[in-house]
Amino acid sequence: MKQRLLLLALLALAAIGLAQLAVHARSGGDTPGEALRQYRDMQDKVRANNARPAPARRTKVRASPFSMPKPAAPAPAPAVPPSLFVHVIGDSLADQLAKGLTDVLDDRPDIAVVDDAKADTGLVRTDFFDWNKAVSDLIAVNAQIDAVVVLVGSNDRQAIRDSDTRLDPQSEEWEAAYRKRIEALIAPLKAKGIKIFWLGLPPMRSDDLSAGMVRLNSLYREEVTQAGGTYIDIWDGFVSGDGSYAASGTGLDGQPARLRRPDGVHFSEEGARIAAHFLEGDLRRVLGDAPPAPVIATAPVAEPTTDTPGEQPAPEKPEYGPVLPLDAYESTPGGQLLGGAAARPSGTADPSVAKVLQQGESLPPREGRADDFRWPE
């Protein structure tokens, strides 16, 4: 409103000024062109003044007298340092598994999941990355390793080159050489008494690739079981009802979820948790229960005594009351039922009883009651 009034006042002043300039021009003063220029300059000043933002109103927020004070934030729970260390090794699927395992074990801060996986690796191309050497180095560097989880093989459907010999995939010679590499990977872990958990490969979208995974899983199962490790089959968690590859399924929360990535090989985040869920039960069983949570020290509370002034403590409430038989009737000391009318003297009977029960007559209705059909007198 104030801005509108100011604009009207400025326009009025501009009109008056323009009229004066015109009179001045007619009397021999400024030329009409000069008067027009001054008028435009005045319009520009009016627009600039109108473009200024109105000053913001400052409102002071007052606290309500009825508002409750905010409760103090609870003291954070003391951090539990990890006492058990689980290392995950393998290819990119193992990297995803490590993240899923961390999620499903979020209630066990005493278990540390260490991701030692390397993408694009396997047991075939030792010239690219040698897992047997990597495991030996892992044991040498880490003072404590309680368990090792292995998920590898998705990149191993290729020829093994041993010196000048090339072994074709899935051939008998190839399988014999591959078994030796599995045994070489397990041997140092077994020698140190480290628990071994070997997860089988999931099905792939490609039927040909899935067939290769089935054959590799059979080798893992035989070698790991023979070495005393735990083989975990996750195949059924990633197939449909007819046993075919399933990109989607049911998540851990019971809701529909995508379990695989669009490449048909890797897990989704929920799929990684599903794979970790297959491992979780055996891992918890082997590693044992969580240690008891540390007790937070609090100030001692003084117990009230008879010497302490003030209100005395209430007597302790019994766990149960007196036992009464189901057919017992609560009565007064004189034998009369509680709430009953006074007993009639012996020998006197209510005359209405004989009138109704023996003579079959009805009692007269009370005046004003619903069954009183007598005409008022």
SSE order, one letter for each helix or strand: HHEHEHEEEHEHEEEHH
Number of strands: 9
Radius of gyration: 46 Å
Biggest sheet details: 5 strands, parallel
Would you identify the regions where 5 or more consecutive residues have pLDDT less than 50?
none
Structural class assignment: alpha/beta
Query: What is the oligomeric state here?
Result: single chain
Estimated share of beta-strand residues: 5-15%
**Main sheet strand line-up:** 2-1-3-6-7
Provide a count of the helices: 8
Mean pLDDT: 82
Helicity, as a percent range: 25-40%
The separation of the N and C termini measures 82 Å
Envelope shape? flat
Explain what this protein looks like in three dimensions.
The protein is built from eight helices and nine strands. A five-stranded parallel sheet has the order 2-1-3-6-7, with helices on both faces. It has a two-stranded antiparallel sheet with strand order 4-5. It has a two-stranded antiparallel sheet with strand order 8-9. It starts with a helix and ends in a 19-residue tail after the last helix. It is flat and about 125 Å long. The chain is an alpha/beta fold and 377 residues long.
